[in-house]
């Protein structure tokens, strides 16, 4: 690219891009100001590295390495909002992917653990977290369908890959009063985003909206 203007947008262009990005989030129901502030601060463009990088500010999912996807910003916003994270919370994310969702959570929680079955994705996300000085995120290569027993229990759990049912180990690793947000359903079909709240008597389930995520796969990935 020889055109410098394309590489370095002017501050006016940056401001307009940010305004459109936040407007799209609000118009799709992301209204929590703490969530919007976090999404204003964390630049999604840093988490999309390939030929799709120039679409990072559009409200669409995009391909990342290892055949995975970075979720649509409005879905990240709505899931984060549904999780009702407070500044004292310890959060587990299953499905690090690009690291974008974890970076948003790092602005709202005390501590974020994020796991992915692809070591490469964890390594690349951890490099970005260091660069951005997001010191309260710990990224670990692991099969998240077993949760993270050494760090459990968690105040909040977010799963960013679709399971056929909310995985039992994750339910067990949720504190009483804790909330888990998880897409449930077969891959390649429309799934339902579910909010699970652990009560003193058991679990309450609330269906939030239709979504489409890559599947939760057992075992470690090949890269
Ligand atoms: N939250 C990510 C997007 C996740 S895409 C972001 O903000 O970019 C879903 C991710 O879940 C993929 O990276 C995939 O490798 C991961 N995944 C699927 N099954 C998994 C499992 N059992 N344990 C951990 N990660 C898993």
UniProtKB/TrEMBL annotation:
Primary localisation category: cytoplasm
UniProt keyword annotations, A-Z: Cytoplasm, Methyltransferase, S-adenosyl-L-methionine, Transferase
UniProt-annotated catalytic positions: 71
UniProt GO molecular function: protein-L-isoaspartate (D-aspartate) O-methyltransferase activity
Compartment(s) where it occurs, according to its Swiss-Prot or TrEMBL record: Cytoplasm
Alphabetical list of CDD domains matching this protein: AdoMet_MTases
GO BP, sorted A to Z: methylation
Cell membrane is among the record's keywords: no
EC number: 2.1.1.77
Catalysed reactions, semicolon-separated: [protein]-L-isoaspartate + S-adenosyl-L-methionine = [protein]-L-isoaspartate alpha-methyl ester + S-adenosyl-L-homocysteine
Any Pfam family matching the protein: PCMT
Record flagged with keyword Signal: no
Reported function: Catalyzes the methyl esterification of L-isoaspartyl residues in peptides and proteins that result from spontaneous decomposition of normal L-aspartyl and L-asparaginyl residues. It plays a role in the repair and/or degradation of damaged proteins.
Listed PANTHER family: PROTEIN-L-ISOASPARTATE O-METHYLTRANSFERASE (PTHR11579), PROTEIN-L-ISOASPARTATE(D-ASPARTATE) O-METHYLTRANSFERASE (PTHR11579:SF0)
Family of the protein in this entry: Belongs to the methyltransferase superfamily. L-isoaspartyl/D-aspartyl protein methyltransferase family.
NCBIfam families (alphabetical): pimt, PRK00312.1
Protein known as: Protein-L-isoaspartate O-methyltransferase
UniProt organism field: Rhodobacter calidifons
